[in-house]
Amino acid sequence: METMIEVKNLCKAYTQIKAIENINISLCRGDVFGLLGANGAGKSTTIECILGTKKQDSGTVSILGMNPQKERKKLFEQVGVQFQEANYQDKIMVSELCEITASLYNTCLNYNILLKQFGLSDKLKSFVSDLSGGQKQRLFIVLALIPNPKVVFLDELTTGLDTKARREVWRSLLELKAKGITIFLTSHFMDEVEALCNKIMILNKGKNIFCGTVQEAITASPCENFEDAYLWYIDEEDENESI
């Protein structure tokens, strides 16, 4: 299988406080990977170092065989990124934002088709500021998919969506997986992780405390379901730290 993301011994500290320590991730074409952990666990720092927006203290990162810091322009022609908190000017229409995004890439998908796929085709002439929270979230996913990426990073992708909308997004992402797109996501919804991810990593205080499949996480815990297992891993680690 073709390796799409390779992270080895990634470390980053802020004023001697270790944000992440010896993180190792290897993802192949079509993998859906979930990076899990409580707020402050190190998820954002991990993603920022992988994307090259933050420089790691040590370790190496490769996306599509490229160094994200040294080959940024070439790499991001093939990588889509959606962040939970994205800020755009108030008076810009959905169509304008999609057009501007598409203009940044040499090749891209038809954003009208993507907007229809994510239930936003009737919002072309709406201002982004007038969209609901869920509509904005779906729009940000569309923007990440416009460059027709081989790898896409999604941060809390269904925050603010109702159950029906969340399921529609899941279905769209599983279609992307079937096409061979590698998806790297963060989520606080364990049902979402179970539905989408074939690999997961649980972080606690910057350390990898579990890496494998959802079923392996359940099997290695004393729990019967994944949500309880996730909480057990985090609580167990916290208890060990206090000993």
Automatic annotation (TrEMBL):
The keyword ATP-binding applies. GO terms for molecular function: ATP binding; ATP hydrolysis activity. The keyword ATP-binding applies. SUPFAM superfamilies: P-loop containing nucleoside triphosphate hydrolases. Residues 5-230 form the ABC transporter domain. Pfam families: ABC_tran. It comes from the Bacteria. Keywords: ATP-binding, Nucleotide-binding, Transport. Belongs to the ABC transporter superfamily. This is ABC transporter ATP-binding protein. The lineage of its organism: Bacteria, Bacillati, Bacillota, Clostridia, Peptostreptococcales.
